[in-house]
Amino acid sequence: MLYWLTALSDGGDFWNLFRYITFRAGGAFLTALIFGFLFGKPLINVLRRKQGKGQPIRDDGPEGHLSKAGTPTMGGLLIVGALVTSTLIWARWDNPFVWMVLFVTLGYAAIGFADDYAKVSKQNTKGVSGKMRLALGIIIAVLAALWATLHHPDGLQNQLAMPVFKDTLINLGLFYLPFAIVVIVGAANAVNLTDGLDGLAIMPAMIAASTLGVIAYAVGRVDFTEYLDVHYVPGTGEIFIFTSALFGAGLGFLWYNAPPAAVFMGDTGSLALGGALGAIAVATKHELVLAIVGGLFVVEALSVIIQVLYFKRTGKRVFLMAPIHHHYEKKGWAEPTIVIRFWIISLILAMIGLATLKVR
Question: Three-class SS of residue 161?
Fold first, then answer.
């Protein structure tokens, strides 16, 4: 919205700053961060009053989690509120990719909110049925994938860009749409599975989003794409403002989610963040790089898949408990140890993902 202040500029004054994505990205970060600090405590107080007993805790989970009973959930409202408000203030409203990412974020946040509300109101851990969540998630992903494809350059539509390999594109044709759907739906559910410990999901999501934001900024500039030998996707630079807002919103939330958490993000936050990551990857044509940058989420999801399939086949378990962060809890690792080590892994993977921009 503030971009339109450039109409007041003669090219050499203060208003000209609003033309620059980097300036507006900084503003988006600070706006989202301040939003989190201002509304975090009041929101937690409201959630605590409305929810009473807070988020239900699984009886078959790690014993240490029983002490978290009564902690309110739906803290993702703080993240999404700060993220959307800041993005709308600082991003250009005529950019299709910004609206596509916002649509996915809000759509998955709504699914997560319905699930959280069902869990809290019924005081059980089931919530909305898995089939219903999946169906709604697929519908959102279909619309987003179609929207992104329509706004990609002709030479990139239905193409899968290969990281590292210079100018290599694989034409997926009609298979691109289901592929993009899997990326968005898979990312949303992978982050959702990771959200099991205080602060575990939010920081890797912030790291992954920041990395994808840098990639979005790079592929949205002709000069950068020529230097880096990556594919130019006009308009994606504005996504950097969204990811900057996400980082600020994430820090604001982490202030209250740091161990011991005063609030959980719930499915409201985890599904929204995961969906956003998948949408950004599709928009920037860096779907495979997301698997590297979000490698922690991939491992968490795979640990659940492996556990379920192996148990059905043999009646035995590969891990003491899935997702894998619970496996390490069962092995006796302290919760902060798991969280911080997983943060470090996320940062390493992000650096590897960024390296794919230049390694050609």
Answer: strand
